[in-house]
Amino acid sequence: MPDNPPDLAARASELRRQGIVGVTIVWADNNGIPRSRTVPVAALEQVAERGVGVTTLLSVFNSHDSITFGHEGLSTPSGDVRLMPVMERLVALRGQPAFAWTIGQHVAADGTPWPYDQRSILARQVEAAAQRGLRFQAGWELEFVLSPADGRPLPTGPAYGPVALLSVDEFAADLLKDLEANGLRIGQLHAEYGPAQFELSLAPADPLRAADEQLLARQTVHAAARAHGLRASFAPLVTTTGVGNGWHLHTSVWRDGRNLLPGTGDHGLSPEGEGYLAGLLRELPALTALTAPSVPSSARLRPGYWSSAYAIWGLQNREAALRYIPGTPLLGADQANVELKPSDASANPYLALAAVIAAGLAGVEEKLSLPAPVQDNPGTWSEEQRAAAGVHRLPATPAEQAAALERSTLLQAALGPAAYGAFRAVRDADRAWAAERSAEEVVEAHLWKY
Length: 450
Known about the structure:
The chain is an alpha+beta fold. It contains 14 helices and 15 strands. It has helices spanning 8-17, 44-50, 118-130, 162-166, 169-181, 207-227, 271-291, 295-300, 349-365, 383-389, 398-407, 409-415, 417-435, 439-446, and strands at 22-28, 34-40, 52-55, 80-85, 91-92, 99-108, 135-148, 186-191, 197-202, 230-233, 249-255, 258-259, 313-315, 322-325, 337-340. A hairpin with a 6-residue loop joins β5 (91-92) and β6 (99-108). The longest helix is centred in the middle third of the chain and has 21 residues, at 207-227.
């Protein structure tokens, strides 16, 4: 069960003094969709100790709020678990002044661990790394598209330009205030490449905090957008032909306060840094099944869109699925990190990070080595050139993703048989749903899910 501070009465009293009437407890399901329960502040002490009852079947909701009974462990409507608030993450929401927010974990009805709880799965991987003397830092870049609630087109300027941000000036100002008040540190906010597309980058943190803050950042953006008559879409694709929204995941691995990625070996990597990156590269096809799992996700991974279509790594290559970003004399060697580009909002952030850590740890322990980096766009090469270089396409369909994950005993073990079974059942249900619809219908149906 999550650790909670002892001064619950004082905390609840302070919330009431601030005019807060409810606490929203949030988790992410197997589609990356945030789900929640809101409790009155008067019940906070009791809920912190006993949790809130929720159905076990929320673990087998598909992206369209239908329940699949395809996983044997959750194949009946019977069962209940407790949603426990992680009180150390409690924050009063500036953009929703009557509410506070916190993350939740699921435990069995008797308080014992529940194998489907994704946050606990990530915690196990963090602990496995700690036993080896390793810790991780992680942070996401969040791309999103803004649309006026009344349906009118949003005026935008040139990509990455200040005029584009000027079109949502009041929203941007409030968003920055809200993010800071909600305890979120960001590196930057800017207009992105696509029409009405914007991006903010979350500062790196330990994996559990990073995943928690990713969910809080979503809520903060949605609330700020609503306050200005806008809607925010984090969907992997907002049109069938556009660039789509990626949520690029940056990670680094540390020991004794030192970033292990940079070194004097090939490509500026240490042996352990090379092993970490090589572990990610080896598992990359299966990783995408967890980091970009929705039906529109695989359609977004197209050559030439900087979304990564091929299982390659490169040095500062934005077309590479794994982009190694070395430290510099200006920033310092410890700023080195690995960017995983095939990642988006449909990923459960806890499962995505758990899989990344498991893959990277295996690479470090097995002392894996890397092939030569690819510094070009393989999408412009012939099939013969790609074959000669050993460059392979990432899974291009949900079925190919599922097959890749089925072959990865490492990532299945990281999730555990119960959580893997539920995740697979949900993905199968989504795939069956999409098979009866056009690409345009699929994109439209996912537009406001995240």
